[in-house]
Amino acid sequence: MNTLLKSLLVASAITSISAAAAVSSSTGNEAKFSFEGTIEPLCKTDSGTANSVTGLNLDATQETQDIGTLDVWCNTGKNATTEYSSLNGGFLIANNTQKSKIAYTLDIGTTTGVDLKSGAFKHSTTEAGTGSTGETKATALKITPQSNGLNDAGTYSDTITVTVSPN
Questions:
Q1: For 37-50, how does the pLDDT look when each residue is reduced to its tens digit (9 = 90+)?
Q2: Of 74, 69, 91, 108, nearest to 145 (Cα)?
Q3: Which pLDDT score is estimated for 22?
């Protein structure tokens, strides 16, 4: 974080604190101070285990395969909303000259068959960990390639981006 942004955050925090503290009574030998602060709802995520799979089975079996886990923590005590988008529009794209495509579906925990070809998908029931030590809850992510065993040679890939927000 650059120095200017840090300075602005510190100045903002000092301004907020001094603006929130006020003398509510100053009679006799006693003074009372009231103050408050707010912690905004927040969720954080990490691409847990096995988040870079290089050995997908792309034969005709159309086998459902693990691509990793999504670890989520929120300070709200509630589930999170996660939004999934595909770099390649819901296709595995080959590194060959034809840029061949194989469609796939995504499984998010117990939600199966998500198709990212029509755009981003919002999942409003992603489990989230809570607590002051940052315990997360993991959601398994899997894909099912729609390969037919007759696809063009090449290495096929896609990247799914997940954003998380509090419910």
A1: 999 999 999 876 65
A2: 91
A3: 59
Predicted TM-score (pTM) of this structure: 0.77
Residue keyed to tokens 């198709």: 115
Q: What pLDDT is recorded for position 143?
A: 97
pLDDT, mean of residues 155-160: 96
Work out whether the CA dihedral 158, 159, 165, 167 comes out positive or negative: positive
Q: Are 167 and 78 in contact (CB under 8 A)?
A: yes
Tokens encoding 40? 């905004």
Q: How does DSSP assign the chain, residue by residue?
A: --HHHHHHHHHHHHHHHHHH-EEEE--TT--EEE--------EEEEE-S--S------STT---EEEEEEEEEESSSS-EEEEEEETTSSEEEESSTT--EEEEEEEETTEEEE-GGGS-EEEEEE--B-TTTT--EEEEEEEEE---S-PPSS-EE--EEEEEEE-
Question: What pLDDT does residue 23 have?
Answer: 57
